[in-house]
Specification:
Elements lengths: L1 H6 L1 H7 L3 H23 L3 H6 L1 H18 L1 E3 L2 E6 L6 E3 H19 L7 H20 L3 H17 L4 H24 L9 H12 L9 H13 L23 H34 L3 H25 L17 H34 L1
Antiparallel strand pairs: 1-2, 2-3
Length: 364
């Protein structure tokens, strides 16, 4: 909350309002997120497993609705406005968790049918293509993260490597066909944000890397340089006033400027500890579905944090990924909390089963 309150001056400058109003809105999302986390963590994971298909269908419906009726920002339709309260929700945040839940279920229930191409394509590969396809049009970076995490889950779930490689090759060919079609027939506008993706790539790695058009990435690196080892102090950062999305997509650079390199390294260490604890919880689970689900959630959270850091340090082109649990963002905060609540529900179940087992041994 302190960092978000400090990083919103650019939002006040562009959208109006006061820092306190944005902080109040952020606190509301945090309260909702932590309440959801607490409620979810007291539920048995078996209910999530049973509802996996329904959750996936809801996610697809939400993405389709967003595709046609979503709120457009920067030529991208990613948000759904909640009636009455007026808050926006990014449907892809719910969809990526829904896909991980469904894949975790299918990697267990369909394991004996992995050798069947028909069953593998329809039951496992098709859901990945649906979610990534609906998201990629307006949010390529999120679709790429989901695709990568899905492939890692397939590998962990012992899905045949030949099928994974075939899936990757087919995806590359399909992407190539779509790009060539978009270039040859621009009037169809198959990939409306294709020019944006290309420009971001060349701004990051090409000769335009130091141009005025790439000032957001330049300001992010300047903020990291300005922070030094100990930072300029909370609230005293200068570059946050000129870096768009300093409170979200460029959170890490703003954090380094005010808190310093030592705190930034500590932040990385904390994310790694969180990932390690999630893996431990998943590996200790007696149910294979719970193991896959915990690992998938851990990969999603860690990958999103890594992408934010890579963008801010110039290792990746500019994308729209914020820092889990830290950056300002309503749906991202709430779904991160729900995801962690699911992991905690698995840990809670493991703990209860362990206590029950110990009590039975003592009674014997």
């Amino acid at each position: 909350m302190v960092s978000v309150y400090s990083f919103v001056p650019i939002l006040v400058k562009t959208e109006g309002g006061t820092p306190f109003s944005y902080l109040f809105k952020h606190v509301i999302y945090i309260v909702i997120g932590f309440s959801a986390m607490y409620w979810v963590h007291r539920q048995d994971p078996k209910y999530i497993e049973k509802l996996s298909k329904f959750i996936f269908i809801v996610a697809v419906g939400l993405l389709v609705f967003t595709f046609f009726f979503g709120v457009r920002v920067n030529d991208a339709s990613r948000w759904v406005r909640v009636p009455i309260i007026g808050l926006t929700f990014q449907s892809s945040d719910f969809a990526k968790l829904a896909l991980v839940i469904l894949l975790s279920r299918r990697l267990v229930s369909e394991q004996e049918y992995f050798t069947s191409w028909k069953n593998s394509i329809f039951k496992i590969i098709f859901p990945i293509l649906v979610i990534c396809g609906l998201i990629a049009k307006d949010n390529f970076s999120t679709a790429a993260i989901i695709f990568m995490v899905s492939l890692l889950l397939l590998f962990i779930g012992k899905f045949p490597m030949s099928k994974i490689l075939t899936f990757i090759g087919s995806g590359i060919v399909l992407a190539g066909v779509l790009i060539l079609t978009h270039i040859a027939l621009p009037a169809l506008n198959i990939l409306p944000r294709f020019d944006t993706w290309v420009n971001r790539f060349f701004k990051a790695y090409g000769e335009e890397g130091a141009s005025v058009e790439n000032m957001q990435a330049i300001n992010a690196k300047l903020a990291i340089h300005n922070g030094g080892y100990t930072g300029v102090g909370v609230g005293d950062g200068d570059l946050k006033h000129y870096t768009p999305e300093a409170y979200a997509d460029f959170y890490y650079s703003s954090f380094v400027e005010e808190f310093g390199l030592f705190s930034a390294v500590l932040l990385i260490f904390l994310y790694l500890i969180l990932f390690y604890r999630i893996l431990r919880i998943g590996l200790n689970a007696k149910n294979l579905f719970e193991t896959y689900l915990a690992i998938g959630i851990g990969l999603l959270l860690l990958t999103q944090a890594m992408v934010n850091m890579f963008v801010c340090t110039g290792l990746m082109p500019v994308t729209g990924q914020n820092m889990p649990f830290l950056a300002m963002g309503g749906s991202a905060m709430m779904m991160s909390c729900v995801s962690l609540g699911i992991v905690l529900s698995i840990a809670y179940k493991n703990d209860m089963e362990g206590k029950s087992l110990n009590s039975n041994k003592k009674s014997e």
